[in-house]
Amino acid sequence: MTPKRVLSFIGLAAKAGKIVAGFDGVSMSIGQKTVKLVIIARDTSPGTAKKIESLCNNEHVPVYRFFEKDAIGDALGKSPKAIVAVTDDNFSKEIANKLDRLIRTMAE
């Protein structure tokens, strides 16, 4: 598993309309209980990351700290994005599996 593959799959989810990006959109979607998974870029400000992580913890939404803003934005075909949320069960499970495999591979 490579970071590029995971980002490609995130891009596929975006094309399918199953991604919400940006602090406000993700926060609102978490509150509406439509978010299945959140990815926070590693270069996101600590305050912003903490706010989103807190919202996710309250709603039991899995959170990953991975990639950089530029890489996430490129995958979505947009400007750099600090936070993205997946709103589809199948995409979220597949992205979580891919991220878990990538994290394990990097730890070896």
Can you walk me through this structure?
The protein is an alpha+beta fold and 108 residues long. It has one domain: 60s Ribosomal Protein L30, Chain: A (2-Layer Sandwich), CATH 3.30.1330.30. It is 58% helix and 13% strand. It has a four-stranded mixed beta sheet, sandwiched between helices. Helix 3 (46-59) links the parallel strand 2 and strand 3. The longest helix is centred in the last third of the chain and has 19 residues, at 89-107. The chain is globular and about 35 Å long. The chain starts with a helix and ends with a helix.
Helix-strand blueprint:
Elements: H1 3-15, E1 19-21, H2 23-31, E2 37-40, H3 46-59, E3 63-65, H4 69-76, E4 83-86, H5 89-107
Parallel strand pairs: 2-3
Antiparallel strand pairs: 1-4, 2-4
Helix pairs in contact: 1-4, 1-5, 2-3
